[in-house]
Every structure is written in structure tokens, then in C-alpha cells.
Amino acid sequence: MTSPRDKFGRPIVVVTGMGIVTSLGAGKIDNWKRLTAGESGIRTVTRFPVDGLKSTMAGTVDFVSVDPFSSTGLTERLADIAAEEALGQSGIGSKGDFPGPLFLAVAPVEVEWPQRLEVGRAVGKPDFDYPDILRVSGGGKFGQYHHRFMFGSVAGHLAETFGTKGSPISLSTACASGATAIQLGVEAIRRGETDAALCIATDGSVNPEALVRFSLLSALSTQNDPPQAASKPFSKNRDGFVMAEGAGALVLESYEAAVARGATILGVVAGCGELTDSFHRTRSSPDGKPIIGCVRKTLADAGMTPEQVDHINAHGTATPENDKMEYLGISAVFGERAKQIPVSSNKSMIGHTISAAGAVEAIISLLTLEHQRIPPTINYHIPDPAIPFDVVPNVARDARVTAVMSNSFGFGGQNASLILTREPI
Amino acid sequence: MTEPKEAWITGIGIVSSLGEGLDEHWDALNARRINVDEKRFAPYIVHPLAPVSFDAQIPKKGDQRQMEAWQRIGTYAAGLALDSAGVKGNQEILGRMDMIVAAGGGERDLAVDIAILNADAKGNTAPNFLNERLMNDLRPTLFLAQLSNLLAGNIAIVHGVSGTSRTFMGEEAASIDAARIALARIASGQSDITLVGAAHNGERQDLLVLYEFGDFNLTDKFTPVWARRENSGFALGSAGVFLVIESREHAEARGATPYARLTNVVADLAQRKQPGAVTKSLEALWSKLGPPGDNCALITGATGIEPVTSEERAFLTAHAGCAVRATGTSFGHTLETQFPLGLALAALSISRGGLFPPNDPTGLEVEMSGPPSQIVVVGAGHWQGEGMAMVEAIT
Prior knowledge:
The complex is a heterodimer. By secondary structure, chain A is an alpha/beta fold.
């Protein structure tokens, strides 16, 4: 029997349940099949008119509907689906009674356009201003929009549905949010506060204003035709990321508790690390030090050397800036091995699920460990000579994989990395 | 498990409708001063931010331009907290300082919104109308002034706090959990020093609309929090509050002077459909917190919303041994900022050796003579989330 504690004397944290929804489908089976077949879930947006937008494609989850529609409502529903799958696999607790806290990565919530327009139409006079809107907002007619557009609403719903314990935490570290949710769960278990944590990351926010916002920051690919070829991580002709929706849910448990209840252990969260970049709101420090420091902190947290990592699930957004900086960071830590170690970007197929990405990609990393097969980076036809990664181009590859590093970097200087292993190290 | 480490509050930064810094706030509270604006958004009432020279903490105008008001307020308060802790500019400490910010979202461009709404209400807009207006009219960097995690991002850029950075969301509960996690990390040795706080701009019509959906806004006439049973509601307030919390050994090693000790933070999410659920939740948290002894006080972020305020009052009445102060009367409701505000005023009161006077015509708040040795900070969100903290004198 393996020791229930790691080499630093902390409880080992394992994964006993996983659920995933992306534009490729709902569930691990569908997603894994399509990811390893190199399929793209990116398509031209049909949920709303795209005329006048520079980027017209996204990895929308069109097979899930919510009524009345809101991005927050979809975000919540995606989390429900992922959590149900993760809890079903884990078999922990009982229905509606999860024995631990909830850590939820979720996009910032705000009143959305369909609802704003509805309130505006209720004013009933021409040339109105905000005080006129205020006058018609009260009295209960729009009462449900208060709850819907509170930041804590998705977590509140999930906590009630799944019976998580205590105060649920909603968090945002931008594109690193999913990794941060897992990190908070790992820390709580390591502190001995709980034997289990439910970590969910979800994002259903492909709407006109979200696309416009990222467009105005020149972050999105504009190579709209064909949409499935738009996301080109590490390629010389990459021109930005593609927005996407999805959710990932993980049941984390202490190794000791998981073994005690006879749970199947899907993998180990061996290390977590984060380091803030204070250089700029959207750009990385040109010397790459915060990314390098983040990767080193994660290795140190896992008590591992770079040689023990044999696959990197990249942040790989396909923005010119991110991919260049990710190579700089990885090559500084991994040296010559940076050119040999397989580095794959799931975002080439599922797009950038923003708040969900860190958890979605952690789950894909764990599936990689389970199947000993690495999903490809698709749309890789024109290599960028400045980024000599082995990107597992276009076709999945069988490989011996014992430890995966999953990276997440976000606006606001957010850098977070995870190391996932099949067995306790 | 190793023995939990003691956590000290060694830095406090406050900016609000009552001014900035500890002395101005202490004086204002002792003078029972309240700063409300009943006219600007009439019939809605707000506690507007006192005049602040942002240059003092955000020297680059370019940085100020990149932020909306809530980020400027928060970045300013964070700077005050770092000054107060004596770590401002200390790269060695700031480079490994952890940060947990509780945040909502930023201001919208109301002129853009209202133009779109007017055109839409007139009818005959093309399907691409919304897209084109947003593409053409939104300021490209406005998004960065709205993103929740960009308050933390700005604090990193302006002040160099760059160990770790996490942003919690979810109204009042977000900052209760921020304090809870910060303390847990310090107590367990996962962090040596953490900056915790929040900021809120209450002078926003888009927020008034959001809360008006639920009829939460106080209207027509200002009343103290405990006197709103008949005309319930909150008056939004502008404030930024940050605290530097560190392990005792870290503080002692650098010769820092503590204001108070943060002993415990507990939180829960009651299912409020049942009447009395909040009273019950607060009672359970009180037991979990470890009830205080003599010479205790209690600072609450009670909102003035019903029925939650009456449910909290029932809890308070059952623990009448603690002198109560409600920050909502003096500062308005500042959502995510209310709990850090309570922690800050608790630590300040302990360090000044006395509780500030009551400001309550209903008599729930009573005078306290002598220095408090323990202050319980209470937060019950206007629609969900409850929490409590224990702040103690270091003897």
C-alpha cells in the first residue's frame, strides 16, 4: 500500500470522478473519441446574428438548451451536466449530499442584452434615459433577473443541487480559473479540512458582447472560413483564439479516504503552482519570468524534476503572444527537452473555454494518462520556427505518459499550472 | 497536523464615503458622521465616495485611465493597506505576497447602453444592429476595467503584489470566504502574508437597476439600518477596504506592529426558503466560531433588507451581551466590501482600545465602556451567504 501522504507529509490528493462538456459533446467517452480523432467543435455561430462581427465562429455548446436563454443559465446547466457525470463516476456521498465544499470557476456575471432590451422596451416612451429604466425595474416584474445575475447564483444553485457543504466559493482568475478551482480543492484537502472537494469550472458565455470585447482587444482569430481551421496553436499563421463553451467537474479526495471507500482512483493532482505577472493587464512580462516561476513552483510543489514530466497539455491559445511566451517559459525550465517533450493544445479542437479551460484540460490530461494516448494539436500545417515544440501535429499519438503538466495563463497576470500523474509519486 | 499558526492583521487600508485612512475614519465614527446623497439618483440614496486624490496611491495617470472607479477605489485602498503594514515598495515581500480579492464587476458604458436601448425601443433595427453598435462604440479596453479579476491585476501592476492572485465572486459571501481562505492558508503554513480585500462603487445606475429588480434599494429618505423595518432596503455605498494578514512569526521577524489577531472565520450558505433560516445559520456559526467572553463587541454588515435583517436582529437579541455596531448605517451597503470593512473596523477599534459609539435611534446599539478584547464580525448577505469572524486583542 502506498503511503497516504506525499513526500512533504501532506495528504495525497486524487481524482475519483470527472465530467466534461465541450462543443465536441457531453461526457468523457464522446469527448475522448473526438479529441483523439482530431475533430474540431468550432463552427459558425448560429445562436445569434453574427453580421458586423469580425470573428463569427466559436465552440458553442448547441446541443444543450436553456429556456429562457441566458449565458449564465447555460453556464449553470453545463456545470450541472459535468457535475452529474463526475459524481456518478465517483460514487461518493449520495444524491444531493456531497461530503465536502464546492469550488466553482465561473465567468463574471452581468445583466445580458436580451434581458436589458426587455427592460428597455418596458419603459414605453421615446428618448428615455437610465432613470426611466430604473422606474420600471422594480415591483417584481423582473424579480428573477436579480437572482439570475448575481455572481453567486450559479454556485448557489450547484451547492443546493449537489448538497456540497459550507459556503461555496465562486472564483475568477480569468483563463486560469479552472486550474485555480482545482488548486483551492487541493489546498483544502492538504490542510485536512475535508476529505473531498467538488471542483467545477464552467463557461457558457458566447454572446455578442463577449465576442465584441475579445475582438476589440484583438485576441480572437478572424480566419472565419472554414471555422474548424481557425484555431491554430503554435502555427506561424496563428492569429488568435476561438471562444468556446464547456464545463469540467472533478471530484477530489484524499488518497486515504478514496482507498478507504474502495473508490477507483483516476489520477493524482501531484502539484499546483501559481505566480502573478505584474507587467501588464493583457501581456506577459517579456522576460517570461512569471511563467517560468509558475512552472518551477508547480514542479517544486509536486517534488518533481522537469525530467519526470513527459507530456505538457499546453495553454496554447493560438494568440501570437501566448504561444511565444509559453515556449519561452517551458524552454527555460525544460532546456533542450522542450523540443522533445510532446506538447499538445486541446484548444485547437475545442477552442478556448475561458473560465472552464483549466478544468476541461486537466480532465483531458487525466484521460491522456488513462489511455496512454496524446490528443493532437490540429490545424498545424505551417510550423512557427520560433516555437520548436513537438506539438503532436494533427494526429493523436500513443505514448508512455506518467506525468502531465497542464498550464493556464490569463489576463490580469494570472498564471497557474498543475501536474497530474497516474499514480502517487 | 502541526499546530495552526497565529495570524495577525498588520495592515489596514480604508477609503469610503467618510474619508480615507484610519484617523479620518476613527474621527468620523466617533462624530457619528454619515455622508449620504439623496438627490443625485433620487429617489435612491447612495453613500458617495469622499474626495480622494488617486495620484497618492496610483501615481501613473495611464494606470488610472485603464481603470474604472471600482478598480481605482480598490487599488487605492490596497496601497493604503500596504503603507499601513510597512511593506509598500518592499519587493522581496511583495513578490511573494498572496492576494485574495473579492470582486463584482465593473461599470458599463451607460451612454452606449442607453443609445442601443432607445434605438431598439423605436423598432426597426437590423439584426446586426447590436453587433455593430458594440463593435463601434465600446472603448476597446473597457472590458479590462470590467473584468472581476482585473482589480487584483491592477493591484499587481501598481503595487507589485505578485505572489499569487485569486479573485472570489459572489456578493457579500465572496469576501467572507476570501478572509476565511486567507486565514486557513496562513494558519496551515500555505501562506506567510496575504493581502485581502474588496472594492465597491455604489454610485452606479446599472447597479441600482440590478438591485431594483429585487426591490432592494432604499428610497426617499435615509434611515439607520435598524430603523428600516417599515421601509426596508439598502443604500449602496462606495468603499475600498484591504487588510494585510500575516503569520505572527512573519510579522515578528520583520518587526511589524499588529492591530489585532484574526482568530477564526466561518461561513455557510443557508437555504433561506424557510423563515428563520438566517437566525439558525448565524446561531450555528456563532457556536462554530467559539462564542466570545466578556468585553466583546459585534460589528455587523446588516443590510436593512427584510426579512434577513429581522432574522439577524433575532440572533443579536439572543446575544445581547455584545455591543453591536452596524456598518450599513455609516457606510451604506458595499456588497463584497462590507465584511472586510467590518474586519478593518474591528481591528482598528481593538488597536485604539475602545469601540466607536452607537449610531442607532432604535436602541439596539448600546454604549460600550472600556476596551473590547474580542470583536465578532458578522455578515449576512442580502440574498444569500452568511459568515462570521473573530478579531481579538493581542495581549
